[in-house]
Amino acid sequence: MINRRQFLKVTGAGAAALAAGGIIPLAKAAGAGALTNPANNFNPDLDIALKATPAETPVLPGNPTRVWSYRGQVVKGDPASLIHLQRSYLGPVIRARTGQKVRIRFTNDVADETIVHWHGLHVPAEMDGHPRYVIAPGESYIYEFEVRNRAGTYWYHPHPHGITGPQVYGGLAGLFLVSDDEENAAGLPAGEYDIPLVIQDRAFDARNQLVYLSGHRMEQMTGFLGDWILVNGQPDFSLPVASRAYRLRLLNGSNSRIYKLAWQDGQPLTIIATDGGLLETPVQRRYVLLGPAERLELWADFSKYPVGSELTLVSLPFDAGAMGGGMMGRGMMGAESVLPNGAGFSILRVTVTRREQKTLALPQRLATISRYREADAVNRKNPRRFQLVMQHMAWTINGRTFRMLEVASDEKVRLNTLEVWEFINQGGGMGMMGGMNMPHPMHLHGMQFQVLERQGVRHEGYVDEGWKDTVLLMPGERIKILVRFADYPGLFLYHCHNLEHEDMGMMRNYLIENPSASV
Ligand code: C2O
Ligand code: CU
Ligand code: CU
Q1: Could you list which residues have their CB under 5 Å from ion ligand 2?
Q2: Residues with CB under 5 A from ligand 3 (ion)
Q3: Cα diameter, the chain
């Protein structure tokens, strides 16, 4: 059970000290008493100070771009736990091991309320960055949790209600990489051969400043689409490699854009991990659709290429549905995106710059995944159904939009039970918008889940073999997932991770109830 004292919202003296001094060692901080609770004997292996702050960073040639950035510093623990990306607005890559206790003292130094969510991590409700925990400029929030996830590529980003889209877009996002013994044993490329790649689209004005939505409702219905494809915050991203095997960790950190990933030369992608870590065995696909917030890890072996070779990772053209580029998207939108969802383009270029004698062989066995069984689900005969529909010019889940603390009776689950949830993206809705259909990447907070089945899928671009926390539904598709509500009771979110949809309320709470808890 989570002790409410395990989290602290720091205000007053402590917050002022943090805001003024930036990073201060705990013992020397004037308001240090406010940072720790005597009743709390949480002793972190890794203690990090993290702040959201305005910054300037070079992106395009010429003027630097004003952004909001996460900046961090290790207060206690391995200094290598934070990796700062060069010339990037992205926050530091946080590295932790399963079982480690992590404290993150987060300070809000930007001009909006905000809160940090650890996307994909299994943490108590108070540590999850629900919008009810937003803090004002100058305030701090202390996160303390044990890393319970298996090795994998997770990430962190803001979660204030209604303004998550602009805050992530403005630069607030970072990776949270977890490692464990099973991953070590798999013998994967590590160190400089393990490369994080965060893909995002942006738009710039003539002075290199970020341009977001114009405020037109139709634009928000579609979601933001930029005409620059950035990787780790840089345009025209090029990756120099040696002739050997690499582990490429991809995150789609875009607000709305979907990528249909493929190697330009037509060789298949070799996928070794998804949102929640390693697959049991590598799988191959000619292409993979990667929706916002989804992760995918590739095994990329360049050993057969001579020095000087170039390879390009591209996004292939695809049909994104009625609003992604059809009549609705074009005729009624205020500003038409130069690069609609579903357009083809290149994402990054790999250049083989040096010869290396040794490479690694692709392991045939990566990890063990214990499979949930539908027969064990408490609601196997009656899956919870979530219809993704537009009503009254708003994207909804079962006709509902987000209310801060609202939970409907059909959004309550019991602690430590396995359930079947079904998401249905069959369009419909009412009035003149009826039948309008868009992709929706659906995400659950707190849990990794397994895909039970999909229907209506007319392509081969999904990797459903492993643990997931976000699943993409293209128009006409439906999906059943198996999810176990383990360990932590409380209020968690589920929502569409198209951030403009999320901001307009395509998000709901679900409540994990603990029937055995005393009231
Ligand atoms: Cu990336 Cu509510 O999540
Ligand atoms: Cu999340
Ligand atoms: Cu959506």
Answers
A1: 119, 445
A2: 440, 496, 498, 501
A3: 68
